[in-house]
Amino acid sequence: MAVAGFFSLLPSVGNAQEIYDLKRCLATGLERNYDIRIVRNEQKISENNATIGNAGILPTLDLNAGYTGSLNDRTDISAEGTPTDITGIFNQGANVGVSLNQTIFDGFRMQTEYDRLKELQRKGEIATRLAIENLIANLTAEYYNHVHQRLLLANLKYALALSNERLRVVDARYGIGSGSRLELQQARVDFNADSSRLIRQVEVVNTSAIILNQLMAVEDVAQKISVPDAVIEPNLLLNELSLWEKTLATNARLLLAQKNKTLSALDLKAVQSRYYPYLKMNAGYGYTANFYDVPPATLNRQNTLGLNYGLTLTFPIFDGMNRRREQKNARITLQNSELETDRLELSLKADFATMWMAYQNNIGLTNLEKENLVAARENYEIAMERYKLGNLSGIELREAQNSLLEAEERLLQAQYNTKLCEISLMQISGQVGEYL
Fold first, then answer.
1. Half-sphere exposure of 259 (CA within 13 A, CB side)
2. For residue 429, which of 223, 247, 254, 295 is within the disulfide window of CB 3.0 to 4.6 Å?
3. E strands, 178-277, in order
4. Which residues pair with 88 in a beta bridge?
5. What is the Cα–Cα distance from 287 to 351, expressed in whole angstroms?
6. Rounded to whole angstroms, how far apart are CA atoms 144 and 242?
7. Which residues contact residue 152 at a Cβ distance below 8 angstroms, ignoring those fewer than 6 apart?
8. Which residues contact 340 (CB under 8 A, 6 or more apart)?
9. What confidence tens digit (pLDDT) does each residue in 220-269 have?
10. Rg (Cα) of the chain, in Å, rounded?
11. Rounded to whole angstroms, how far apart are CA atoms 145 and 49?
């Protein structure tokens, strides 16, 4: 089978309907990805909650209205003991008014609550940023994985073309009686093995495209996409000291841990506010009307219109030692938040050191594999010439071909691994947004 004819039987990965470069992938994902849309809505909730009214600083004003009625039978007994029965007594009452309530002082609890709501708002902003950074990192890594898999596919097509050329030479020799059937069959086995690898690689490329579409929340996840990048070029100029300084200053996970520590400190302050007296004010203005069916004396209706007001001072003396217990727990929680921040910083330091070492090693591997690829290509060209002259066996040619293919794959893998290390370093230092 001719190699061109075989390619026509493969599922198409080149006739893409859409062209996506990295920037378009990221822009589409940030606009459509469901996780990003959800976390942005959660951020809006925290923004809506960060008000002085929600903290209890503003007064409350209520409009009240009511109606009451009673229907009774009554028996009046005079001093002489004479009873008088009165039935169907229908008394009514109605009221309408406004009431104002204001907490004047509660041990700084309201101010602490407002500070807590503002911190939750900032925490929501950082959580949104963390989700965006994770999406950018995942999308960028999958984008370059797709590029990587396409490059591997191109190498396998090239390897299949080499196997096809070998099969053609052996078939020509066998046709004129100068080649063995064993060698012809071995060439066909190797050709079919390369064909099988190529088919499997087509599946890997299509799967990577589906994952990209899913991350971008594209409705047609099975749509064919094409990427313009034909090579993977990692950034070889990253600076270790600069990245680590940025990690300590802008890492989203570390900033979230610091916000949690601040919130724990505010919770402790809120508990301590219970040791102070509380002062509250209330005022009201309203109208009340009472209607009497059987009035006392000559009164059958009573109207009241006026203002009422008051102050309430509360000083907690003893509450079962709950304030003391809550204060102890709040201090422990604050201590745990501080320990969590320190633990996270140590974890980031370990991750950064590991990733930086991998980044440098893969740069070295990339340079080494470039040299190996040059030697492997030269070695295969020499082997092919000797094979055509009959001075080299098919097995030896196959070894040279495999060496060439493996050298190409190792170089691609080293470049891809370097890119992944770069993405991880940019993410951990809070700089992954530069890919936008």
1. 20
2. 247
3. 225-226
4. none
5. 71
6. 25
7. 201, 204, 409, 412
8. 257, 260, 261
9. 999 999 999 889 999 999 999 999 999 999 999 999 999 999 999 999 99
10. 40
11. 41
